[in-house]
Amino acid sequence: MATAASAATFSIGTAQTGRSLSPSNPFGFKSNSQVNFSGLKAMSSFSGNETCAALRATFAPKAVKENQNRNHILQPQASYKVALLGAAGGIGQPLALLIKMSPLVSDLHLYDIANVKGVAADISHCNTPSKVADFTGAAELANCLKGVDVVVIPAGVPRKPGMTRDDLFNINAGIVRDLVSAVADNCPGAFIHIISNPVNSTVPIAAEILKQKGVYDPKKLFGVSTLDVVRANTFVAQRKNLRLIDVDVPVVGGHAGITILPLLSKTKPSASFTDEEIEELTVRIQNAGTEVVEAKAGAGSATLSMAYAAARFVESSLRALDGDADVYECSYVQSDLTDLPFFASRVKIGRKGVEAFIPTDLQGLSEYEQKALEALKPELKASIEKGVAFAQKQTVTC
What is the CA radius of gyration of the chain? Predict the structure, then answer.
């Protein structure tokens, strides 16, 4: 690598990786990693003079020395294989580009039933280390998945005006079933990230299929609810005039409507909210997907923000696989924090998947939050049971 001319950070929500740059390597890939908790100090964009200046400040020699004293220096290497299933779709295309930017990805496998060759050809021109390969149709799915470390599944139909996430169930449930079955056959030890809606049901479907195949590891199955956190952080920062880079709001429950519960009382940095603000922010976060669907007037759903949020979660998973011991994200996973079998909450992620839950997030809730938590449980329970029932009716070949 050429001598560094400047420093920059690769950042998707929670991940910051400072590294040396050269004119031929604008993103950089070998360097020390400064890790932050759940996005509290993450940069808010990929580029720009302000961002680069802030980055240089955070990556000053003093900071590096402090990190070394904590024995917390990482050397990111492009060594992980990621498969993106549904790569030609509205979420898949921008997500493919963002994953291509990760310094931890050596191979990016793009799969879809059609139109994926062009996507692969396009992003393969980006001068980042990962090699891009395309796979089209069921006949090529097995080759796409072999040896993969992380599988990301945004495949399915998007929401349209007037549709609820449950309206997507009949189509997307079958898509998730088939794709997860192939994952079980070809890369059973991979982290599995489910984006396909309704996540409240598709994650239980995936779990049941993996059980039928005899390869279910609940620590490695994740429902990507990161978009709810991204939205909560954004809306709270705007309302309270806070620096977005500093804001972190845990979001628990599920990933649809009232099952999405932002814990505003747990906002960092601490902020006070009126009853009216709590109600308005909670409802907006819960209905933000509909806000985008209606704004696009039939032309799509929340594809770009979802891609951003999913890329953040992918990067966090890769950092965990790479040995970062300080990775926390909110995710919809098998959980014992409540009486529900699946629940979204903040989890600590390590090399083997979910390492720990953070029960303190559910302690000391406000009266509003406690009532909302109890109110969401019946709907979330019904969605989980719907997914389990669907999967149990399926015949999966072993």
Answer: 20
In SS3 terms, 317-363 reads as HHHHHCCCCCCEEEEEEECCCCCCCEEEEEEEEECCEEEEECHHHHC
> Among residues 289, 287, 268, 265, which one has the least CA distance to residue 277?
265
Share of the chain above pLDDT 90, in %: 73
- Asked if residue 320 has pLDDT above 60, the reply is yes
The alpha-helical segments, DSSP class H, found in the chain are 49-58, 61-69, 92-100, 116-123, 141-145, 169-186, 199-212, 226-240, 275-286, 288-295, 303-321, 367-392
Q: How far apart are CA 225 and CA 306, in angstroms?
A: 9
Q: Which amino acid is at 307?
A: A
Q: Report yes or no: 350 and 320 within 8 Å, Cβ to Cβ.
A: yes
202 with 193: CB under 8 angstroms? no
Contact call for residues 249 and 267 (beta carbons, < 8 A): yes
Cα separations in angstroms, 243 against 40, 41, 187, 268: 10, 10, 41, 11
pLDDT tens digit string along 61-119?
Answer: 444 444 444 444 555 677 999 999 999 999 999 999 999 999 999 999 999 999 999 99
Domain with 113 in it: what CATH number? 3.40.50.720
Q: Which two three-digit tokens encode residue 191?
A: 């982290």
Please tell me the distance from the alpha carbon of residue 363 to that of residue 338, in angstroms, as a whole number: 12
CA-angle at 364, arms to 376 and 369, nearest 5°: 30
CA atoms 2, 34, 99, 286: torsion sign: negative
Instruction: Note down the domain range covering 273.
Output: 227-381
Task: Say yes or no: 134 and 191 in one domain.
Answer: yes
Handedness of CA 180, 120, 14, 257 (dihedral sign): negative
Cα dihedral 138, 210, 317, 159 sign:
positive
**Cβ pair 50, 92 in contact under 8 A:** no
pTM listed for this prediction: 0.82
Question: Does residue 161 belong to any structural domain of this protein?
Answer: yes
* Residue carrying the six token digits 């880079």: 245
Give a yes or no: residue 102 inside a domain.
yes
Q: Do residues 172 and 301 both lie within one domain?
A: no
Contact 241, 256 (CB under 8 A): no
Mean pLDDT value across the chain: 84
Is there a single domain that holds both residue 146 and residue 232? no
Query: Active-site residue numbers?
Result: 255
**What is the DSSP pairing of strand 260-262 with strand 251-253?**
antiparallel
